Amino acid sequence: MTIQYVRDFYSVPAKIGGRVEWTAPNGAKFKGTIRSADHRLHVRMDGERHNRILHPTDNVKYIFGPGHLVPNKLHAGQALVAKRIDKAVKRAQSRDSKPKRPTAAQLLRKAKLEGLLK
Fold it and tell me: Which of 43, 69, 99, 107 has the fewest CB atoms within 10 Å distance of its CB?
């Protein structure tokens, strides 16, 4: 498992050497650099000697440029659900926009009104 796996599976912009901001459970914020990855990130926090192991989507914000934070993208399960919802909405919209075909009963009623059937 590599950093590419983390990017693909969790849909996050992680890269070796990339900067992150992690919020600890007590609310303290730490900035660090991604050093390596398996299915988790190994991050060296600023001022620390050892790497911390972090889940790619657990209170981790990815930083690009001078202090610019990029919010996490959807993780794989959320992305799949979002795609399914979008697909269902598009199907419903396309169904509503198509002209509806008349039923057999409606065609018979129309024919009787026009005098084609007795």
Answer: 99
Domain that holds residue 19: 3-73
Same domain, 65 and 15: yes
CA-closest candidate to residue 14, choices 31, 35, 29, 28: 35
Amino acid at 15: K
| Residue 44 is assigned to a structural domain of this protein | yes
* Residue (of 117, 95, 99) closest to 108 by Cα position: 117
| Mean pLDDT lowest among 37-41, 70-74, 108-112 | 70-74
Beta bridge partners of 22: 30, 60
For residue 9, give the CATH number of its domain.
2.30.30
* Residue-wise pLDDT tens digits, 14-24: 888 888 999 98
Q: d(Cα 91, Cα 86) in Å, to the nearest integer?
A: 9
